[in-house]
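Input (structure):
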């Protein structure tokens, strides 16, 4: 057993994961790993660690532990400034996010929250794994005349205002603005706080047409559509809870809570006459007729904290769907 190398890893909160590998003379097989992992949205905290790697290798020609130590010290000397610069870029990313959130809060009201959240789904929901197309890429800007996007122009317009102000200081993509704005809309209306990572690149062309699920789909069709986008039935049910906002009759149009599920369980559309027959979209009503969906609907109706947690995670997945990322953002 002898020392054959060491790992030097920097852990901070920027994405994507970056690895610098240093190869030493063949027989020593020493390596240095320089890594960068991200836990989206949390405050920037960075740490550095260095560790030597000892492996047993009967064929190796030893170069001596003192050489190993000297090498380790010189590599740390090289990498430490690099780590400092990454810490700096972490702090910048956190500052960029704060600036963007601040400008979004200036233009967002509870009344506009539903439209802004819907915009997120209409940008990201075009993602198709097999075709590797669509996703969270800001292409909604080119798709506003499509029938399924009716009414979304005004939501995008207010976000463009925020983007314009932010762009005077930093450059931010439309997809980042929409992703962060949807999270702000949810929390403004009393929903969970959702950490959103920055660094998406925008598409310069519209996504293929016909990729959003139609409201006339039954539960099987909805499940298949969401599966093609990488979402489970549980995530379909959690994300559909977004319909608690807006005017489809699931509680207050400006409060994000679990009333969507409570109302679904009551099936108010079955009662004759009055406004109750107007509640929900066909796709909402379809979910409750499916046993697997019904299990999740009942859980979320009973436990709002569980709904908030699952919505948060599904939302993060949604805004990362098919996203292309800037390097070292
Ligand atoms: C499950 C498949 C889905 C279908 C078929 C669907 C379809 C629709 C339709 C037809 C509307 C009504 C638009 C109008 O009032 O003219 C609507 C509203 C809305 N959708 Fe969806 N949607 C789905 C999933 C989602 C998801 C995943 C989200 C977000 C995570 C979302 C967010 C919203 C919001 C917030 C509204 C209310 C908008 C407003 O009142 O301004 N939807 N949706």
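Output (sequence):
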């Amino acid at each position: 057993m002898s020392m054959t190398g060491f790992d030097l890893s920097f852990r901070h909160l920027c994405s994507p994961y970056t690895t610098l590998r240093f190869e030493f003379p063949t027989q020593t097989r020493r390596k240095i790993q320089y890594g960068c992992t991200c836990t989206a949205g949390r405050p920037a905290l960075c740490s550095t660690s260095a560790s030597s790697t000892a492996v047993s290798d009967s064929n190796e020609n030893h170069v001596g532990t003192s050489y190993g130590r000297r090498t380790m010290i010189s590599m740390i000397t090289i990498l430490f400034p690099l780590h400092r610069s990454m810490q700096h870029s972490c702090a910048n990313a956190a500052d960029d996010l704060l600036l963007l959130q601040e400008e979004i809060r200036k233009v967002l009201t509870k009344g506009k929250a539903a439209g802004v959240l819907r915009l997120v789904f209409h940008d990201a929901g075009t993602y198709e794994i097999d075709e590797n197309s669509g996703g969270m890429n800001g292409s909604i800007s080119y798709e506003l005349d499509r029938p399924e996007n009716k009414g979304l122009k005004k939501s995008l317009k207010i976000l463009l205002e925020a983007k314009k102000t932010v762009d005077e200081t930093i450059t931010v993509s439309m997809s980042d603005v929409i992703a962060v704005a949807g999270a702000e809309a949810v929390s403004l209306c009393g929903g969970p706080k959702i950490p959103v990572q920055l660094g998406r690149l925008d598409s310069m062309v519209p996504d293929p047409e016909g990729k959003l699920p139609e409201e006339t789909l039954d539960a099987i069709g909805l499940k298949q559509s969401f599966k093609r986008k990488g979402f489970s039935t549980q995530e379909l049910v959690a994300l559909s809870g977004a319909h608690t906002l807006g005017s489809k009759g699931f509680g207050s149009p400006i409060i994000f809570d679990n009333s969507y599920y409570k109302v679904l369980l009551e099936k108010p559309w079955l009662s004759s006459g009055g406004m109750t027959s107007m509640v929900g979209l066909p796709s909402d009503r379809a979910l409750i007729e499916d046993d697997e969906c019904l299990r999740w609907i009942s859980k979320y109706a009973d436990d709002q904290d569980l709904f908030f947690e699952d919505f948060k995670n599904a939302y993060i997945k949604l805004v990362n769907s098919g996203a292309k990322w800037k390097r070292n953002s």
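Notes: The longest helix spans residues 65-107. The chain is about 45% helix and 5% strand.
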